[in-house]
Amino acid sequence: MKILVCISNVPDTTTRVKFTEGNRNLDSTGVQWVINPWDELSLTRALELKDNASNGISSVTVAHVGPASSEPTIRKALAIGADDAVRVNCDASDSYSVALQLAEVVKEGGYDIVMCGIESSDHNGSSVGGMIAGLLDVPLVSAVSSLDLRGGEPLISREMDGGREIVTTSLPMVAVVQKGIAKEPRIAAMRGIMMARSKPVKVVEPVDTAALTEVIEYEIPAPRAACRFIDPENAAELIFLLQNEAKII
Amino acid sequence: MSLLVYTENWNGKFKKLSLELVSYASGVGEIMNSDVIALTIGPVEEDELMRLAEYGASRIIVAEHDALKEYDTLTYASVITQLAEKEGSDVIVLANNNQGKGVAPVIAARLAAGLAAGVTGLPVSVDPFRIDKRAYSGNAMARLEIKTAVRILTLAQNSYDLKSNRRDAVIEKYQPVIENSPAIKIEDVQRQEGKLLLTDAEIVVSGGRGMKSPDNWVHIEELASLLGGATACSRPVSDEGWRPHGEHTGQTGKVIAPNLYIAAGISGATQHIAGVSSSKYIVAINSDKDAPIFEVAQYGIVGDALKVLPALVAAVKAAKND
Ligand SMILES: Cc1cc2nc3c(=O)[nH]c(=O)nc-3n(C[C@H](O)[C@H](O)[C@H](O)COP(=O)(O)OP(=O)(O)OC[C@H]3O[C@@H](n4cnc5c(N)ncnc54)[C@H](O)[C@@H]3O)c2cc1C
Ligand SMILES: Nc1ncnc2c1ncn2[C@@H]1O[C@H](COP(=O)(O)O)[C@@H](O)[C@H]1O
Q1: How many structural domains does chain B have?
Q2: ipTM value of the model?
Q3: What is the mean pLDDT of each run of 10 residues along chain A (249 residues)?
Q4: pTM value?
Q5: Range of the domain at B315
Q6: Per residue, what are the HEC states of chain A?
Q7: Taking CA atoms, what residue in A is nearest to B239?
Q8: Which of B174, B192, B226 is where one domain is finished?
Q9: Does B78 fall in a domain?
Q10: Which residue of B has its CA nearest to A246?
Q11: Contact across the interface for B283 and A242, Cβ inside 8 Å
Q12: What is the CATH number of the domain that holds B127?
């Protein structure tokens, strides 16, 4: 069984984002790039599943759509433990075109389980995983908070409004993962970092596609009005303000 | 042209979220000169369906089929796609919740239609179709242009005010064609009964590591219950096992948008704020006057949460007795 983990390359989550002139692009000066936090967790889970030999997982591959400059992020995933990587050599801005490229990778590689995060921390598209499933017409389980294997069959819990369901489905499948999928992201050990250098990264050229959406500009939301401080000895004033000024209680 | 809004129901009942969706759709419909068709996957009683007419739906369609008893993402997406094609819908609106996030991208892929996820307001222009959406986990807004003739929007919860806009709606039954049996088999369902869901709550009282110990959550719970709200926490608190995982908000937890978010003993790390920055009002209680949480709060109290919370509880009780 082969697992494909789709990873997106995002600014470190503590970045104070700024944009370049015209507000069309991120100002990448000083930005640290990391694996999207959800993808780091989904990679961790894939590796945990592989560690258990009885699951019969032959490889965990990471896939990324992006230019050569995202290679350090791919190497990091290899250092954490992925066996190999595929990079589709093009810019990633529109979720549909990213999904189309990834769907091609899935077809070529014949993966059984494709894992995507619930959202990338930069685009917040919540799109790519579901689109891959829609394009390939393979089963999709979204809001996945745990993924196990039971005799070669995926055993999944998915979050519903007001509860959770334990479900199973046939392979190949796409799992869109969220909170709970793994506890802590696995970190690269020295040995992993050494080994990552010699692991294969296959670079493939993109298939033809047109973007369906385009970001025209970004805007940093206006800072909220300054905080109004209330004397801790006079908590009742806060309740009064919430009732009469904000009118929300 | 028509505008299709998918309104999920929960055991035959709608939530405020469903009404928000219809209100929003009729706002978009007004700009685009289209009627609003509301679709739900049944069964739902007629009285309940008519609630959607209050907010601007002029046709209400209930899809029923044996294969729709359980939620199978691809099957639900097919039903919505089929209807959108049949009705020639050029805008499809869904909720940005668990189900909406599941089905919307599948519909987008099937129709090769542009998707804007987590929108909070009406389009800023229709031709070209441009709309603002959350980006960089709440640190920016992106103005997205959707270039396709069909546009799919998922609406962030509690971001659009209900506006009544009564229509004489007709209810129609719809039997979709379902070619493949559902791919997902459900083995077990674990429901959280009776409790106000964090994502539905309009008031949320939340605690961080500054609350010191799980025993001190009595104050959080008492204040939340007096205000008719739900409880939440920061990630380290749920990691420690002080609170259940479902309560943690933030970038790796739940993203919520209540009217009021009260944060006690929470420092306000960007990853935490990512989950709560859409709250209408944030109140911070922190012993450190320089805690970053005060940068996003409208009201703040610098003090010991273990003293301030009981004082707030007493003040709410007193206000209620007035
Ligand atoms: C990739 C990544 C993702 C993350 N995702 C999330 C997420 O989704 N959600 C999340 O919450 N965190 C997340 N974190 C963790 C985040 O960075 C912070 O560590 C966390 O939010 C801090 O929690 P806290 O405010 O409860 O604790 P602390 O940072 O320890 O802050 C405690 C606060 O309580 C105050 N305090 C102490 N005593 C009192 C008292 N008696 N009365 C009042 N105030 C008091 C202190 O002044 C301090 O401000 C993430 C981190 C990473 C790296
Ligand atoms: N450029 C990319 N390359 C590979 N995978 C991606 C890329 N962008 C997004 N993904 C995957 O899709 C998920 C959701 O991203 P998004 O739809 O952008 O919110 C991410 O968690 C990744 O698993």
Answers
A1: 2
A2: 0.92
A3: 98 91 90 96 98 97 97 97 98 95 97 97 96 97 97 94 92 95 94 94 96 96 88 94 92
A4: 0.91
A5: 203-321
A6: CEEEEECCEEECCCCCCCECHHHCCECCCCCCEEECHHHHHHHHHHHHHHHCHHHCCCEEEEEEECCHHHHHHHHHHHHHCCCEEEEECCCCCCHHHHHHHHHHHHHHHCCCEEEEECCCCCCCCCCHHHHHHHHHCCCEEEEEEEEEEECCEEEEEEEECCEEEEEECCCCEEEEECCCCCCCCCCCCHHHHHHHCCCCEEEECCCCCCCCEEEEEEECCCCCCCCEECCHHHHHHHHHHHHHCCCCC
A7: A183
A8: B174
A9: yes
A10: B281
A11: yes
A12: 3.40.50.620
